Amino acid sequence: MEDSAILRVTTYLEELSNVRFDHFPGLILQGLQVIHVGKGFVQCKLIITDRVLGEDGTFHTGVIAALMELIGATAIYSDGGSHSHASIDLNYSLYSTAKNKEEVKIEARVVGRKEDLNSAVIEIRREYDEELIAMGRLRMVQLSLSDKHNGVHQASKL
């Protein structure tokens, strides 16, 4: 039987790929194809369209960053994380780009977990030649609604 977090991630990504254009994640994820979701691993494909192109006609770098954070966060969640995570660091490098109607493959995998800190590595590659477009690392911290004070858990005042 599949883990419930994996089922929720698969459903979440499929829903995001079908939302209207006026919703931000739907704008960049329209047409996203989920290839595989496993514990701490997400692999998807996306056809580049004019919605995600920059002025120069190539895959917009801001969209690449947003895509890395969204897919990286879903990989962390599929590894048994909770809904309550916040990104604390997204570091990525750009190596190439993609043009309109090219297909890219996005792969994210959890590479570390220590206490409340989770880390995922994300790669975006052009589908037809496997050329690396971008690689990044996302670090997320699990948010807690309670805090310890003098060794005793107390409810957060937020």
Keywords:
3 helices; fatty acyl-CoA hydrolase activity; acetylation; 23% helix; Thiol Ester Dehydrase, Chain A; alpha+beta; single chain
The portion of residues forming beta strands comes to 35-45%
Unreliable sequence segments: none
- Number of domain modules: 1
Question: Might you state the CATH topology name?
Answer: Thiol Ester Dehydrase, Chain A
Question: Taking Cα atoms only, what radius of gyration do you get, to the nearest Å?
Answer: 17 Å
Question: What is the fourth-level CATH superfamily?
Answer: Hotdog Thioesterase
Which CATH architecture is right? Answer: Roll
The strand order across the widest sheet is 1-2-4-5-6-3
Structural class by helix and strand composition: alpha+beta
Shape: globular
Instruction: Give the termini separation.
Output: 38 Å
Mean pLDDT: 83
Distinct helical segment count = 3
Which sheet architecture does the biggest sheet show? Answer: 6 strands, antiparallel
Helix-strand string: HHEEHEEEEEE
Helicity range = 10-25%
Tally of extended strands? 8
CATH classification class: Alpha Beta
Keywords: Acetylation, Cytoplasm, Cytoskeleton, Hydrolase, Lipid metabolism, Mitochondrion, Nucleus
Domain Thioesterase: 57-127
Organism: Brassica oleracea var. oleracea
Subunit structure: Homotetramer. Interacts with PCTP.
